[in-house]
């Protein structure tokens, strides 16, 4: 069967990945209402087409943080790509380099930031960062990616605690023994008495994160700071006041707080309050070119996609 849209790749991945792996990638928090509404919200938006406008020449290029991209779609930070295909994040990095678009590398990658940089030395990469109770963990990651030529930090602010993903709990999800969170390889001592949460010891994330941590990041790096996880105009205004260079309007793919707004529904008020002072991006629920168009028309500079990249990796199993 010819693969003609992302739904085809999604169905292929669901059929060929293990149940635990599929459930991990597909998971939303609690009842998955926000995850599902990310998709439904785009279907509620209607286009107002203008005609007789001469569209014989089109140009999809854009600039993001001053860097030109071939089209306004980047890869959002998603964890554990090696679960879908053995080359994992290395394959993702090579693909985005070839397409000349942006890849936001996840802290929870199954390839290290060094391996990713070596695989696609000319790629345009940002690095997604969490804040840990031990600030040295975060600081060391920042210095590593800065030295490797990553172009921005994406500070994820919506995970003071990990969302309750019911299927992961039912499946007792753990990384298989041959895979690790490579960015932390050798950092944590292997103590079987310490419970694990997505490849690292539980309670490693810092629930006390606050706006002051923006200032702390600014004190240790010269990289632009993009805040990911903003859903309200009030927090968008605070982000601007704290001197960040960009906002990703995001609900973490519906994996954190169930019952929050769809990302695209939150975008409008954030665009209005920011009023062009910094760049705004959006992720969550984007599955078609029309979805991209709707996000751009509502004020996003570009969009990022997460799960679809993993489905593409799963399809590589077929061609190899």
UniProtKB/TrEMBL annotation:
Reaction catalyzed: a (2S)-2-hydroxycarboxylate + O2 = a 2-oxocarboxylate + H2O2; 2-hydroxyoctanoate + O2 = 2-oxooctanoate + H2O2
Assigned keywords, A-Z: Oxidoreductase
Cofactor: FMN
CDD domains according to UniProt: alpha_hydroxyacid_oxid_FMN
Domain (FMN hydroxy acid dehydrogenase) ranges: 1-320
Keyword Endoplasmic reticulum (UniProt): no
Cited InterPro entries: Aldolase_TIM, Alpha-hydoxy_acid_DH_FMN, FMN-dep_DH, FMN_HAD, FMN_hydac_DH_AS
Signal peptide as annotated in the record: none
Family matches, as PANTHER family: 2-HYDROXYACID OXIDASE 2, S -2-HYDROXY-ACID OXIDASE-RELATED
UniProt family annotation: Belongs to the FMN-dependent alpha-hydroxy acid dehydrogenase family.
Protein name per UniProt: Hydroxyacid oxidase 2
Organism: Ataeniobius toweri
Gene from which the chain derives: HAO2
């Amino acid at each position: 069967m010819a693969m003609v849209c992302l739904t085809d790749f999604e169905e292929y991945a669901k059929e060929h990945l293990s149940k635990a792996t599929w459930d991990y990638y597909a998971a939303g928090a609690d009842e998955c209402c926000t995850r599902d509404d990310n998709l439904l919200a785009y279907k509620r938006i209607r286009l107002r087409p203008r005609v007789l406008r001469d569209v014989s020449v089109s140009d999809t290029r854009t600039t993001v943080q001053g860097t030109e991209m071939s089209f306004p779609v980047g890869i959002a930070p998603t964890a554990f790509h090696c679960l879908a295909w053995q080359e994992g994040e290395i394959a993702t990095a090579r693909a985005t380099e070839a397409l000349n678009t942006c890849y936001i590398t996840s802290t929870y990658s199954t390839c290290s930031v060094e391996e990713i940089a070596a695989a696609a030395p000319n790629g345009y990469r940002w690095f997604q960062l969490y804040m840990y109770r031990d600030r040295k963990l975060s600081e060391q990651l920042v210095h590593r990616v800065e030295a490797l030529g990553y172009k921005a930090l994406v500070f994820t602010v919506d995970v003071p605690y990990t969302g309750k993903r019911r299927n992961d709990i039912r499946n007792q999800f753990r990384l298989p023994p041959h895979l690790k969170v490579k960015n932390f390889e050798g950092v944590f001592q292997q103590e079987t008495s310490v419970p694990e949460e997505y490849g690292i010891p539980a309670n490693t994330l810092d629930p006390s994160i606050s706006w002051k941590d923006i200032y702390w990041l600014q004190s240790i790096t010269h990289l632009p700071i993009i805040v990911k996880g903003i859903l309200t105009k009030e927090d968008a205004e605070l982000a601007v006041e704290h001197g960040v260079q960009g906002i990703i309007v995001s609900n973490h793919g519906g994996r954190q707080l169930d019952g929050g707004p769809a990302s695209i529904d939150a975008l409008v008020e954030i665009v209005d309050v920011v009023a062009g002072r910094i760049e705004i991006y959006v992720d969550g629920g984007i599955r078609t070119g029309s979805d991209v168009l709707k996000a751009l028309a509502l004020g996003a500079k570009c969009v990022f996609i997460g799960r679809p990249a993993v489905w593409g990796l799963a399809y590589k199993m077929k061609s190899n």
